[in-house]
Amino acid sequence: MGMLNKEIVSLINNNQEFVLTSHVNPDGDSIGSEIALQKYLSSLGKNAKVLNYSSTPANYTFLDRDNVIEQFDESRHKSLIEHADVIFVLDTNEYSRLRTLEPFIRSSKAKKVLVDHHLGYEAASGLFDCYMVDTESPATGEMLYKFFKDIAESSSKDIKDIISRDIAIALYAAIMTDTGSFKYNRTDSETHEIISQLLGYGISPYDIYSEIYNKATIGKLHLLGRFLNNITMVHEGRTAFSVVTQKDFEETGTDEYAIEGFSTHLMSLETVVLGIVITETKRGVKLSFRSKGNVRSNELAGEFQGGGHMNASGAFIPGAKLKDIVSEAADRAEKYIQ
Ligand SMILES: [Mn+2]
Fold first, then answer.
1. If you measure from the C-alpha of residue 78 to the centroid of ligand 1, how many angstroms do you get, rounded to a whole number?
2. How many Cα atoms are found within 13 Å in the side-chain-facing hemisphere of 209?
3. Could you tell me the distance, in angstroms and rounded to a whole number, from the CA of residue 324 to the centre of ligand 1?
4. Would you state the pLDDT for residue 116?
């Protein structure tokens, strides 16, 4: 397949204590990649702990049947990070997205390994000891698959001696979620070939999809109803935004996690190139931007001290009033959609 990352292989072979982590608000790729790597390391007899800032979202707990993921707690985990031999940071190249783990990981004497597919890793240059980066890859889970495959080939092992059924499920979930169920641009024939190999384990695409996406509550659908009803189109239909208020959350019995995926509906509008989800939280106003093509949503987010990727970004304005932000966001958006 590719070139075996020998540096990472020798770090794995020559060490015993591992810590794995990923970004705040973990997604299917972060949880799936953590589980896959944790299970691989365990199979080699290594001690591998997964520590996350956030708790695991309910729709991904099925990947962690053995409860290996722990929510970071300074008093319990500080010395574990300090004394680890190797720390893997998966699916983000920004230390700040590790939130409260950041200072402990940065000051740990452990070798730090970055495994990620996001743009902007140049900024992390020198902050890790070892890099496995592929910005063309659709998912960290796909990078790990190739890494495992390379290990198998270089040691003349069967891939099934390395990728167990549980690892296959975790990698499948990682790749499925980060490719938008195999529809985003970076989904290519290689992705489908890898998925084909994973399906060889007899795993069920329907069951995995259902575990992750068919978990809505009636409250979430009622909230979605309000969100759809509130969609406003401006700039000749090129920008669409909608607002979710604290009252909406209260009256539908939901919380801020329930808006995940709502932006897809804005982007499904044919004429729209920029979508903005505006959420009133208890501490301020949250803006979530999505865009199509060359519309630089991250620069718009930057105007609100936020950031992200060109087509997906966000910002948080503490203490702001919803009404002010709605008009400001729409006004500032105009110059980005030309
Ligand atoms: Mn990812």
1. 26
2. 8
3. 33
4. 96
| Domain co-membership, 166 together with 308 | no
Domain match, 184 and 314 both: no
**pLDDT given for residue 14 in this prediction:** 98
Choose the final residue of a domain: 153, 187, 212: 212
- b/e string for 195-230 if b means 16 or more Cβ within 10 A? bebbeebebeeeebeebbeeeeeeebebbbebbeee
Grade residue 235 by pLDDT with cuts at 50, 70 and 90.
very high
What pLDDT digit, counting tens, does each position of 121-133 carry? 888 899 999 999 9
Shared-domain flag, residues 81 and 186: yes
276-288 mean pLDDT? 96
The band of 154, judged by pLDDT with boundaries at 50, 70 and 90, is very high
pLDDT of residue 119: 81
Q: Which residues have their alpha-adjacent CB atom under 5 A from ion ligand 1?
A: 29, 91, 140, 178
What is the Å distance from ligand 1's center to 82 Cα?
Answer: 26
Residue from 146, 148, 129, 128 nearest 138 by CA: 146
| Of the residues 212, 243, 263, the one at which a domain ends | 212
318 C-beta neighbours (distance < 10 Å), count: 9
299 and 154, same domain (yes or no): no
At 248, the amino acid letter reads: D
Mean pLDDT throughout 304-320? 91
Task: Tell me the residue range of the domain where 169 lies.
Answer: 6-212
Q: How many domains does the chain have?
A: 2
The domain that holds 330 is classified in CATH as 3.10.310.30
What integer pLDDT is reported at residue 148 of this predicted model? Answer: 98
Query: Are 161 and 225 in the same domain?
Result: no
**Ligand 1 center–CA 178 separation, angstroms:** 6
